[in-house]
Specification:
Length: 116
């Protein structure tokens, strides 16, 4: 397995540029509005407690966490962590399969490189 920890940031501007490059007859401003509205729609539904399913990517859902005891690591003092709502993401089977396929291919490439 590789120790590669690639991390890319996909900001809204980069996503809008990708839309402009892939979709004919769309200008940057329209692509920016499209990307903004896409994320705003997801956020609105999550605020309402809905689950958002994006086929091929996964599901975003809101989970209620109950209050629980915790500890301040600096002082050792026991504190209560308040109840809250958190957003969770569960990848789709399609996304999992793609990631796993790439992982297997990377391991095979590394093994063949090490044999040389």
């Amino acid at each position: 397995m590789t120790d590669r920890q690639d991390c890319i940031t996909l900001n809204k501007a980069a996503l809008a540029e990708a839309v402009v490059s892939k979709v004919e007859n769309i200008d940057r401003q329209s692509a920016k509005v499209l990307v903004e509205e896409f994320f705003e729609m997801i956020a609105r539904h999550l605020e309402q407690g809905d689950t958002v399913k994006i086929p091929g990517l996964g599901n975003f859902s809101v989970r209620q966490k109950v209050a629980r005891p915790g500890r301040n690591l600096k002082t050792g003092e026991t504190v209560t962590i308040s109840e809250r709502r958190v957003v969770t993401f569960h990848p789709s089977g399609t996304l999992n399969a793609r990631v796993t396929a790439n992982l297997i291919r990377d391991e095979e490439e590394e093994a063949s490189t090490n044999e040389r």
